[in-house]
Amino acid sequence: MKPLWTALAATLVVLTAPAATAGEGWIEDFDEAAALAKKEGKDLLVDFTGSDW
Predict the structure, then answer these.
(1) DSSP string, the chain
(2) pTM of the prediction?
(3) Which residues does 33 contact at the CB level (< 8 Å), separation at least 6?
(4) How far is 53 from 47, CA to CA, in rounded Å?
């Protein structure tokens, strides 16, 4: 069972790596992103990060 989880985790990393490094196309303003998502009928992916929590 462990090899299956390892393979799934590796696949997830490979598939999400291009999105993490893309840069272009990301909207950093929540209200703007929410309005665009509503207009296009899409969901939002909100990533909260910080170093001083």
Answers:
(1) -HHHHHHHHHHHHHHHHHHHHH-TT----HHHHHHHHHHHT---------S--
(2) 0.47
(3) 27, 44
(4) 15
